[in-house]
Amino acid sequence: MLKISSLNVNGIRAAHRHGFTDWVSQNKPDIICLQELRALEHQVPDPIQNMDYHSVYHTAEKKGYSGVGILSREKPIQIQKGIGVDWIDNEGRILMSEFEDLIVFSVYAPSGTTGDERQDLKMEFLDHFLPFAQKYLSGNKPVVFCGDYNICHKPIDIHNPKRNKNTSGFLPEEREWVTQLLETGFEDAYRRLHEGEEDLYSWWSYRAASKERNKGWRIDYHMTCPTLLEAAEEAVIEREWDLSDHAPVTISYSI
Amino acid sequence: MLKISSLNVNGIRAAHRHGFTDWVSQNKPDIICLQELRALEHQVPDPIQNMDYHSVYHTAEKKGYSGVGILSREKPIQIQKGIGVDWIDNEGRILMSEFEDLIVFSVYAPSGTTGDERQDLKMEFLDHFLPFAQKYLSGNKPVVFCGDYNICHKPIDIHNPKRNKNTSGFLPEEREWVTQLLETGFEDAYRRLHEGEEDLYSWWSYRAASKERNKGWRIDYHMTCPTLLEAAEEAVIEREWDLSDHAPVTISYSI
DNA sequence: CATAGTACG
DNA sequence: CGTATTATG
Questions:
Q1: Endonuclease/exonuclease/phosphatase domain: from which residue to which, for each copy (chains A, B) (predicted)?
Q2: Given this model, what pLDDT does residue A119 score?
Q3: Which residues of B68-91 are buried (b: 16+ CB within 10 A; e: fewer)?
């Protein structure tokens, strides 16, 4: 059994203050994909660095901004930072760890909520990401792209689909992109294990007590190859932990 | 009996969180001279604005920076913001409230701790301040210049005079300036009521638990005319309140 | 609302 | 150490 968690920490230092190491020691995931570290590698709190995990980070050039990481009990046999597109790689958004019989990515798609310019870059990111990810589907190792895609796919994935139909994160072209990703062969593993179930979200605004009222969005995914979907046995969103504005999305795979 | 308090609040909003209105209602000063408001007038918390005091503020152009105020039970018959020197007035450092038989100033001298440039401006401020204040000594109303002068006068006023003899706030030329102010006729009323008493400070660094170890500086003064010194009956530094890194300096005058 | 950054003290 | 700012989400 291999347990993989994905979590946008909204600042690894803040998540540490909120009990990140407690969560790790109580849940013992084999692999943890982190997004939005908002720290340089040397700023990651020591107690996290001293956990019994191998850690790989791909941080942004800009201090306190973006950045992804992968923690794993096993040491990766290979890692890859970025995808060869300068502005994306400078923002620390895509990181791979390859293991003996599994490839894991931590992905942090840009937010488009701050304006048109960033929304355009978000779409550009998605356009780069799709063919990049596709290549790994035809490889001979199971692959999963875990992360914060900053997109809700379907109305069921957002608490107020009507009000948000023109909001970045639920725009038709963004939702269509997720559909394309699935049509190329990826699987939204969490949804596939919870078909039709409502009120399942992975992010809640800090404002207006959104989390306690469960007014959230499901924007964090395990996008798996078909093989891994078959191996997926249990998928949970760990809403009971308040480590950041996101909840960990954890799936156990029988490999 | 007229009770006048002087307090550097290090942010009126922060002081409010730390119990400013409790302090006011328990002590009921007639006049409160405030320094380092670090807020525009409309940002002063409502509970402070709604106290039974008249308030006058002279804020800095730069947001979140400097600024002085005077709260008084009586309504001032006249007020004066600044002293006619642009850079000083833009920084919100000197404010007057005139009453029937008293003139009160709230003064916030620049800090010189951030470097030579600001230290030079501090000395320039002091050079402007001295003749400005002097004029009021020859007037026919009692006058007091309350505030944070950012200078310790004598070794007795600082916990470690030797180590700080080259530190801004205890430099020979700054201490000499205070001596001159006193020689022109002003009185350091708090000291005059506590001659020779040691370990009396009004400011403690937030660092290194300075306050609980009483490693402080006395840099907040009531600089009074001789008439007011004679009227001064009780002078206290209210160290038991933790409203900011300074303690209120409160003197009761029998006028 | 919250986490970063930086300026200032 | 602590209170502000501003950028970002």
A1: 6-246
A2: 97
A3: bbbbbeeebeeebebbebeebbeb
A66 is near strand D: CB distance < 7 Å: yes
What domain range includes position B161?
A: 2-253
Q: Please, which positions of strand D sit below 7 A from a protein CB?
A: 1-6, 8-9
Number of domains in chain A: 1
Q: What pLDDT band is residue B47 in, cutting at 50, 70 and 90?
A: very high
pLDDT tens digits for B76-119? 999 999 999 999 999 999 999 999 999 999 999 999 999 999 99
The structure tokens 């997926």 sit at A232
3 state SS of B249: strand
Give A124's contacts (C-beta < 8 A, 6+ positions apart).
none
Side by side, which strands form the sheet with B143-148?
B78-81, B94-99, B102-108, B143-148, B220-224, B187-188
Active site (annotated) includes residue B148:
yes
Instruction: Going from the first residue of chain A to its last (255 residues), give the mean pLDDT of each consecutive group of 10, the final group possibly shorter.
Output: 98 97 98 98 96 98 97 98 97 98 98 95 98 96 98 97 96 98 98 98 95 97 98 98 98 96
The residue type found at B189 is: A
Which residue is catalytic, options A22, A101, A148, A220?
A148
CB environment A82-111: b (16+ within 10 A), e (fewer): bbebeebbebbbbbbbbbeebbbbbbbbbb
Residue B148 confidence (pLDDT): 98
Contact B12, B68 (CB under 8 A): no
pLDDT at site B197:
98
Q: What is the mean pLDDT of chain B?
A: 97
- CATH at residue B157: 3.60.10.10
Q: List residue ranges whose Cβ is under 7 angstroms from nucleic strand C.
A: A 10-15, 17-18, 38-39, 43, 63-64, 206-208, 244-245; B 65-66, 110-111, 113-114, 118, 206
pLDDT band at B35, cuts 50/70/90? very high
Q: How far apart are CA B169 and CA B205, in angstroms?
A: 13
A61-66, long-range: CB < 8 A, 24+ apart? A61/A90, A61/A91, A61/A92, A62/A91, A64/A11, A64/A38, A64/A39, A65/A38, A65/A91, A65/A92, A66/A36, A66/A37, A66/A38, A66/A91, A66/A92, A66/A93, A66/A108
